[in-house]
Amino acid sequence: MKVIATNKKAYSDYNILETYEAGIELRGTEVKALRESGANFKDSFCRIKNGEVFLLNLNIPQYRNGNLNNHDPERPRRLLLHKKEIHRLIGKVKEQGLTIIPTKIYFNSRGLVKVEIAVAKGKKKYDKREDIKKREINRKINEYLKRNR
Prior knowledge:
Elements: E1 2-6, H1 8-13, E2 14-24, H2 28-37, E3 45-49, E4 52-56, E5 77-80, H3 83-96, E6 99-107, E7 113-122, H4 125-147
Antiparallel strand pairs: 1-6, 2-5, 2-7, 3-4, 4-5, 6-7
């Protein structure tokens, strides 16, 4: 598995509850651009329309050696999931007020582009502060243990 890009902001802004692996419908130049320069997750999210899941605002830069048929960098991209998974996502988003965000995009062992999406709940400001405090405490404990070995 070769990771192309990760959404680092997702882990600090959301509590990740479940993750799913989804295929993504891409054009030829998009795959070449992913191999060449990666992707940008800034402000990207998933939306469900007519029983299909779409990934919005994922920026895949244009392929340098492309021609007139080069792709639009921020076009909506359809995610490929099983129908049961889509129904489960619809239920969670509608009933519990959760959101679907992309966390990682990568090439699997067969060379196909996959997106890891997560069902997540947004963190409040005080939740973020608690996470920072926990991280600092763990860092201090580890530092103390290293010094006293």
